[in-house]
Specification:
Elements (H helix, E strand, L loop, with lengths): L17 E5 L23 E2 L2 E2 L4 E2 L14 E19 L10 E7 L7 H5 L4 E8 L5 E5 L5 E10 L3 E2 L1 E8 L10 E3 L8 E5 L23 E2 L9 E19 L10 E7 L13 E8 L5 E5 L6 E9 L3 E2 L1 E8 L1 H14 L2
Antiparallel strand pairs: 1-5, 2-3, 4-10, 5-8, 5-9, 5-11, 6-7, 6-9, 12-21, 13-15, 14-20, 15-18, 15-19, 15-21, 16-17, 16-19
Pathway: Nitrogen metabolism; (S)-allantoin degradation; (S)-ureidoglycolate from allantoate (aminidohydrolase route): step 1/1
Organism: Actinomadura barringtoniae
Enzyme class: hydrolase
Length: 343
């Protein structure tokens, strides 16, 4: 098994995921499957339907008149459509009511399909029917080299599943990006953090997530630095482009904000990321203030593939936006990837 869990969870609610349909949710709601927090449990909390769980739980199935038992399912719309590298099926706290087997399918439909349209989609099995245990995280590698928009979780025949995590690489539709000024650092456009000096409290990919951070945990935060130097993160842009405006958002970082920030850039197609002389400044070291957004217009006009954000000496960033224009090479790169993976 590869370590796909370092990749973004394409299905999590905070990145726009939604559970659009389920066969049954008699005990616990289908929406719990994609909650961002770890499953919680408080014993002896009984409601009208029984013990309460932080997950999805269905009624006990019984054979129909033909002796068929069937199985339960839930369809998740990915918040960030992309290539799925791995799935985690988590049965946390379900110890006597978990399903003995599970499988996962995926499909890709354009636009915003209704549930009825999803029923007629071409579903591809990405996790075959597999035995699962109670109160356990089950990781499964996925090898399908395709862009998907939805997944269908099958639990066979019934029971409870706490979470499904769908880790992968977002793949943006070039039709929504080409010819426009866009956020070249947005996770949903295909940008990723490829290097980081410290992520003690939270991952730097959080900086690139859509929307506003609601608390410190939804941004990037480092440990307190005790030696000389500073912390940094390197962002691979969605595609080659020219960065014209930077927004560094320190909202919620009231006592953990850095004292200053800077931005440097490089074109990694012609230079190594390890070549310090190849990096050039986009934003000189600049003082910043806690708990607020900072916007800087950049004068550069050079095509770049990566941007490094340095924070002095440590702290965190809630969100980082790098607005700019794709170059011709960038548009071609996005289009080629789309054609290769759209299926």
């Amino acid at each position: 098994m590869t370590d796909f869990t370092s990749l973004p969870d394409l299905a999590v609610r905070t990145l726009g995921g939604s559970v659009v349909a389920a066969s049954d949710e008699s005990f616990e709601e289908k929406e719990n499957l994609i909650n961002p927090w770890k499953p919680e449990f408080q014993p002896e909390t009984f409601g009208a339907k029984g013990q309460e769980y932080d997950g999805w739980e269905t009624a006990r199935r019984r054979p129909d008149e033909n002796g068929e038992l069937g199985h339960d399912w839930a369809i998740v719309r990915l918040g960030l459509p992309g290539v799925i590298r791995g799935v985690v099926i988590d049965t946390a706290w379900f110890k006597g009511n978990f399903p003995p087997y599970a499988s996962v399918e995926a499909c890709a439909l354009p636009g915003y399909p209704a549930v009825a349209e999803l029923a007629d989609a071409e579903w591809v099995e990405i996790v075959p029917k597999s035995p699962i245990k109670g109160d356990t995280e089950h990781p499964f590698d996925v090898t399908a080299e395709r862009r998907f928009t939805h997944v269908r979780l099958n639990m066979i025949p019934d029971g409870g599943i706490a979470r499904i995590r769908v880790h992968g690489e977002p793949v943006a539709d070039p039709e929504l990006l080409t010819g426009l000024t866009v956020d070249l650092a947005a996770l949903e456009n295909g940008a990723r953090v490829t290097g980081c000096s410290n992520m003690f409290y939270s991952r730097p990919d959080n900086m690139l997530a859509p929307g506003l951070a609601r608390n410190q945990a939804e941004g990037w935060e480092t440990a307190r630095r005790r030696d000389p130097g500073n912390e940094w993160a390197i962002i691979k842009l969605a595609a080659p482009g020219v960065v014209k405006l930077a927004e560094i958002d320190l909202t919620n970082l009231k006592f953990n904000a850095p004292a200053a920030v800077s931005l440097a850039a490089i074109d990694a197609r012609s230079s190594s990321l390890d070549d310090e002389d190849a990096w050039f400044d986009l934003l000189d070291r600049t003082r910043v203030q806690p708990d607020g957004r900072h916007r800087f217009r950049l004068a550069g006009d050079r095509e770049v593939t990566h941007v490094r954000v340095d924070i002095y000496p440590c702290g965190g960033i809630a969100r980082l936006r790098l607005l700019g224009d794709l170059t011709a090479a960038g548009e071609q790169e996005l289009t080629s990837r789309w054609q290769q993976l759209a299926g």
